[in-house]
Design goal:
By secondary structure, the protein is mainly alpha-helical. The termini are far apart.
Length: about 180
């Protein structure tokens, strides 16, 4: 058997755990572990998310665009609804005659489905009669809707590149456009 050579250094060799804790710089001790790699990826994602987040100015701009869109949509809808109500429909006498016919048919029917449909037709005729007799307001947009439109229309028009002629084609009055600061180009 071969004889062992005696150690020249009598200090004990440190354990692997003690070497790691002491900051061993060997390749094995500095290699990233799975946990460290995962933490690095998570940190990279968080950094990218923070960098991609909207700034306060961007949030303000988006909010302004939403308010402009809403004001324009509400005004144009009210304008169109008012225009629809102002158009000439059936004369009131024709509507009254149709109501009498529906009432007579309702009195003679026993079928529940037919009665349901006739009831709906009667309600539609009553609403049409009220509109024909002027009981329904057909004035179009309210002053508050027009004020909101005037406040937001210029910004909306600039952002979406809407011309004066396009607004006029949809029925917006020249006075309203002038109040909003939208001029002919």
């Amino acid at each position: 058997m071969a004889a062992r050579t005696p150690k020249t250094d009598d200090t004990p060799k440190p354990s692997k755990r003690a070497t790691k804790a002491a900051g061993d710089t060997s390749a094995r001790a500095t290699a990233p572990t799975k946990r460290a790699a995962l933490e690095a990826r998570v940190e990279a994602r968080e950094t990218a998310r923070r960098e991609a987040a909207m700034t306060a100015d961007q949030r303000v701009a988006i909010g302004a665009a939403h308010r402009q869109n809403k004001a324009v949509r509400v005004y144009l809808t009210a304008l169109a609804t008012g225009a629809d109500r102002r158009r000439r429909g059936r004369p009131a006498e024709a509507i009254r005659s149709a109501l009498l016919d529906v009432a007579a048919t309702m009195a003679d029917t026993t079928d529940r489905l037919t009665l349901l449909l006739l009831t709906q037709q009667r309600q539609n005729l009553e609403a049409e009669l009220a509109q024909a007799e002027g009981e329904v307001d057909a004035s179009g947009p309210t002053p508050a809707q027009e004020a909101a439109f005037v406040e937001h229309a210029a910004g909306f028009s600039a952002r979406r590149r809407i011309s004066w002629a396009t607004w006029r084609e949809l029925g917006v009055s020249a006075a309203t456009l002038s109040s909003a600061g939208i001029n002919r180009d």
